[in-house]
Amino acid sequence: MTLPWRVKKFLDEHAYRYDLATQAGTDALRLQVVYLEDALGTLQVLFPTTHMLRLHSLAEYFGRNFTVMSAAHSQRLFRRLGIQQPSGVLPIADLHTLIDASVLDHASYLIDSGDQDSLLRIDQAELMRLIHDSDGEIVHLCSAVSTADASGDDSTQILRSVESLTSLRIRQRLEETLEIPPMPETARQILRLRTDPEARVETLAAVIERDPALNAQVICWASSPFYGNTGVHSVEDAIMRVLGFDMVLNMALGLSLGHSLHLPQDGPCGLAPYWEQAAQTAQSSLALVQIMPRQFRLHGSKAYLCGLLNNFGQLISAHLFPGHFSLVCRHIEANPHLDVEMIERLLLGVTRHQLAAWLLQHWYMSADVVAALRYQNCPELAGAQDFLPRLLGLTRRLIEHRPVSAAQLAGLPLELAEAQTCVDDLLREQGSDLRAMARQMSL
Question: What is the pTM of this model?
Fold first, then answer.
């Protein structure tokens, strides 16, 4: 473990007492460092990872609207300071430093050093010296994060969220209050085919062909280098020669539902665009099913559909709460240490996955797909229908290289190392093809 030379020079010149560490101990509070900016200047904010930074509190305090420092500005700053990432101990002349008051009641702390492999452990007295030396200002800007109950009734939580965000006393039925958008007619017809044991290739092709955009997307998808086929000229070709009936049916259903709501123009910086994430998750879920024992491979096409719709709640959130969606996006950027669901629950009172499950239930989507979207991050609550939630949650973690616990892997016939290799190989070898498919999906 090493320290950036400028950080070490500052600590040594001021005779700070510190230790190097790689991970938090039970006795140390882990602190998060975020750089913010607006047209008038920049801020450095230090706060616990057990809390969420409230940007609206900053706006009230300063009368200014801050956002996370742009990647280009951050990189210039890092180069100037000789660091790889934010450092919570280095006073920076042109950055005003704020420290949330919640950090002051602990005996020891772990702070980013500016090197991705090292943390600094310091005690309370040394932290107070750092605050003084950086002319830091102690303020109240954060909310404590709690593990909210994810098993409550979604309709009740959504209604409560609407009431709190609109400050209206809503007494109508939930369906009237939220103005449920109608399911696209194409999706409605495809759903009927899913439950029809006599459904034929010609029938599915006819439904898709009546939607010119969907027709073009399915043909382009089947013709893509990802599947190694050329000369696919019709949906029937795509079904018979390349993808198969169930795959085309679920692909068309996912695309139709995804296009039923407008893709928000705003979104958190640093996260994959909606359709790129959908394509990666769908194909990775399918790849994982294909390395499972034979009896699990029957779930392949549904796993693909769940992957396509994994972030469908983002579209619904932007549709139902347009005035607050941008606020959520800015908080996701400012709190990279927190799960997106936690931030949504703190700001909106409801998560995107709850919204997705609620809407798809009203659209009569099959219960196992609804459960997959709703419980992808808490599969233990899905009951007997926990296979697809576990698979979807695992897929997202493998794509993002997030930790996977034994409980999250339980019930899936996969070894973690094998699953990670499967997803990594797919994204490395087919990443450009998946991005091309995502561009086609977004049209």
Answer: 0.79
